[in-house]
Amino acid sequence: MPVTSISWQSNILRIIDQTKLPNELVYLDIADIPTLVEAIMKLRVRGAPAIGVAAAFGVVIGVQDYEDDASKKTFFSLLDSTVQQLRNTRPTAVNLAWALESMREVAQKYHHESISAIKEKLLLKAKKIYTDDQAINRKLAKFGANLIQDNAQIITHCNTGALATVDYGTALGSLFYAHSCGKKMHVWVDETRPLLQGARLNMWELQNEGINCTLICDNTAAFVMQKNHIDLCIVGADRIAANGDTANKIGTYSLAVLAKYHKIPFYVAAPTSTFDPTLTSGNDIPIEERPKEEIIDSFGCRTAPQNSKVYSPAFDVTPHTLISAIITERGVINSPDTHSTLELLKKP
C-alpha cells in the first residue's frame, strides 16, 4: 500500500519530510505557522493536493491556541493573517488557495458562534478535506487505470503519488490502481530537474509498490520515445485553466510536445480542486520562480559558477491542444476545451 504522507495527531500536523527521501524516511511534526510555511516553501511537503490539505490544518494550527474568551475581532484578524501567510508560500498550485478559502468560508459561516465552536468547525473541515482527498484519489485512479492497458510502456514526470497527496496519488495513483488489478507495466521515470522529484520520489514509490520502472534523465525522454514503443504519458497538475491549459512541473510542456510528435497519448490526472475556472487560459496562471541555489548548489554540490545568472521557473503550461485527456474523480475529459471542462465541473 502507498505511504501516508500527512496525518493529524494530537493537534500536531505530521508530514513526511520529502527533502530527506530516498535516503531517509523522516517525519516532521508541525505545531506552528512559521514551521509550516518553511516546510511548504522548502518542499518538505509538496504536490498540489498535499499542500492544500497541509494548509487546511495550518489554519487550525494558526488559531488553536487563541483564548476562547478573547476578542472575536482579533480572532478573525489572526485567522486572516494565517491564511495570507500560507497563501503566499506558493502561487501556482491552486489547491492551496482553494483549501484556504474553504477554511475561511467555514469560519465566516459560523462567525456568530463562540470561538471554541468556530475552532471545532475548522478542525472538522480540515479533516473533511483530508478524507475527501483520500476518496477523490481512489475514484480518479480508477478512471485513470482504465486508460492503461496490460504490459503498457509509460512515461511520467515529477511525483504524483502518495507523497503528492494524502496517501494514494493522481497520475501515479492510476498506475497503482492498475497494478493492483493485475496489469503489468513498465514506467520510464523522468528524473525531474532540478530537485529530482522523479528520481528521489517516484522511483521510491514505484519500487515500494513493486512496479517495474527505469530512471532516465529528463533529456532522454525523446530518445526513449523514438526507440521504444511508448503507450502513454501521464502527469499531474498544479492548476488547470477553464480551457484545459495545464500548469505542471517544469518540463511537462516539453514532454507533451514530444508525445504529440511521436503520436503518444498525453494524459493529465488531477482532482477537480486543481481546476481554476476563473482563468480563461494558461496565459493567466501565475508561475512560481525558485531560488537560483536549487540550480547551481542543489544537494550540496556546486554545478555552476556562483555568479551564474539563473532562470528557474518551477512550472510550465501545457496547452490543452496537446492534452489527450484530463482524468478527474468525476470522469475523463477527452480532448479538453472550455466547454467540456466547465461541463465536467458542473457534475456533483
Q: Which features does this protein show?
A:
alpha/beta, Four Helix Bundle (Hemerythrin (Met), subunit A), Rossmann fold, 2 domains, 4-stranded mixed beta sheet
What does this molecule look like?
- Helix 2 (48-63) packs parallel to helix 4, helix 2 packs antiparallel against helix 5 (115-145) and helix 3 (72-87) packs antiparallel against helix 4 (94-109).
- The chain has helices spanning 33-41, 48-63, 72-87, 94-109, 115-145, 171-180, 197-209, 221-227, 252-261, 293-296, 338-346, and strands spanning 6-9, 12-16, 27-30, 152-157, 185-190, 212-216, 232-235, 239-241, 246-249, 266-269, 275-276, 315-318, 325-328, 331-334.
- The protein is built from 11 helices and 14 strands.
- It is an alpha/beta fold.
- Helices cover 41% and strands 17% of the residues.
- It is globular, with a radius of gyration of 20 Å.
- The longest helix has 31 residues, at 115-145.
- The mean pLDDT is 96.
- Strand 5, helix 7 and strand 6 (212-216) form a beta-alpha-beta unit.
- The strands form 3 sheets. The chain has a 7-stranded mixed β-sheet with strand order 6-5-4-7-10-13-14, sandwiched between helices. Strands 11-8-9-12 form a 4-stranded mixed β-sheet, with helices on one face. A 3-stranded antiparallel β-sheet has the order 1-2-3, with helices on one face.
- The protein has 2 domains: 6-138, Up-down Bundle (Four Helix Bundle (Hemerythrin (Met), subunit A)); 140-346, Translation initiation factor eif-2b, domain 2 (Rossmann fold), CATH 3.40.50.10470.
